[in-house]
Amino acid sequence: MQQHQSKGVQIVQPPDDDVFGRTFVVADPDGNLFRVSPVV
């Protein structure tokens, strides 16, 4: 997540531990939301 923040990505939801790993949500400049999660 810190790599994304250093490049100016807006973090909408901070990291959260889920059953399949840690996830967080980011927004692009147009307001689209993306959930970042590990590949299982």
Describe it for me?
- This protein has 40 residues and is mainly β.
- The chain has 1 helix and 3 strands; from the N terminus they run αβββ.
- The chain has one helix at residues 2-6, and strands spanning 10-18, 21-27, 33-36.
- It has a 3-stranded antiparallel beta sheet, with no helix packed on it.
- Strand 2 (21-27) and strand 3 form a beta hairpin.
- The longest helix has 5 residues, at 2-6.
- Residues 5-35 form the Glyoxalase/fosfomycin resistance/dioxygenase domain.
- Pfam families: Glyoxalase.
- It comes from Corynebacterium accolens.
- This is VOC family protein.
Name a few traits of the molecule.
single chain, 40 residues, mainly beta, three-stranded antiparallel sheet, 3 strands, globular, Glyas_Fos-R_dOase_dom, Glyas_Bleomycin-R_OHBP_Dase, VOC family protein
Compact description:
The chain has one helix at 2-6; strands at residues 10-18, 21-27, 33-36. The protein is mainly beta and 40 residues long.
